[in-house]
Design a protein that fits this description.
The protein contains eight helices and eleven strands. The protein is of the alpha/beta class. The protein has one domain: Vaccinia Virus protein VP39 (Rossmann fold, 3-Layer(aba) Sandwich), CATH 3.40.50.150. The chain is globular, with a radius of gyration of 16 Å.
């Protein structure tokens, strides 16, 4: 209805994602994507939810690019598939599982809220089963002979460390542009050492700095860009 993606269509609900319908969400991230995504590139949207940022990336890579949207909550992945069809995005591949650092597929019980999986201990929200695997185990198949990655947007609700570890070989090989939203419960020193291990400077740049913020504080639920080392 408004905002940078006005005119595009998203399959969601007023209950789950009104900010997307109204175009009021992820403004800083969308602006960053517009400066950093080029036609024909391959991008990963890890933790795609209903696909708001996937829509933006698909527009930017164009019909000759590729977007792989990883969404582990099966119902939400189904809605994301409808969003792909509503916008005729042939460049968008929906991958209905999440990423960690395992070598084979496993299941996990997670709390769910507004179409999102939140794997935090002690959560009393309704629970669902999701499927997880390491990126290493599936990328050759998904890439279909073209493994280059130009960019990664990650928003995985507290599983950032495991997801990055599972991508280590590919991040070190291609050094794609990397933006990660950091969530509550993620140990900051371990997260930053993991960022360094996968080939990036462990000093991130926030997309939306707070007034007077001079150095990264790695505040919960905010996105940070990490440069390749």
């Amino acid at each position: 209805m408004a905002g940078p993606l006005r005119g595009r269509r998203i399959f969601t609900s007023w209950h789950d994602y009104p900010a997307a319908i109204l175009g009021r969400t992820e403004v800083a991230l969308i602006n960053w994507l517009r400066r950093n995504v080029s036609p024909g590139e391959t991008w990963l949207d890890i933790g795609a939810h209903y696909g708001y940022t996937a829509i933006a990336i698909c527009e930017l890579v164009g019909p000759h690019g590729r977007v792989f949207a990883f969404e582990p909550l099966l119902a939400t992945a189904g809605y994301l598939s409808l969003t792909r069809d509503l916008n005729a995005f042939q460049q968008l591949t929906i991958v209905p599982f999440g990423l960690d650092d395992s070598t084979s597929m496993r299941t996990l019980q997670v709390a769910t809220r507004r179409g999102m999986a939140t794997p935090l201990e002690g959560d009393v929200a309704p629970h669902n089963t999701i499927y997880l695997t390491g990126f290493e185990a599936v990328w050759d198949m998904l890439a279909d002979g073209d493994p280059a990655i130009h960019g990664v947007k990650m928003d995985v609700q507290g599983m950032e460390i495991a997801a990055l570890r599972g991508m280590e070989r590919w991040l070190n090989r291609f050094h794609p542009k990397l933006v990660v939203e950091i969530h509550p419960g993620v140990d900051r020193p371990t997260f930053l050492s993991t960022v360094a291990d996968v080939g990036y400077e462990p000093t991130g740049m926030t997309l939306d700095p707070l007034p007077g913020e001079l150095v990264p504080g790695y505040i919960d639920d905010r996105s940070y860009v990490f440069e390749a080392s």
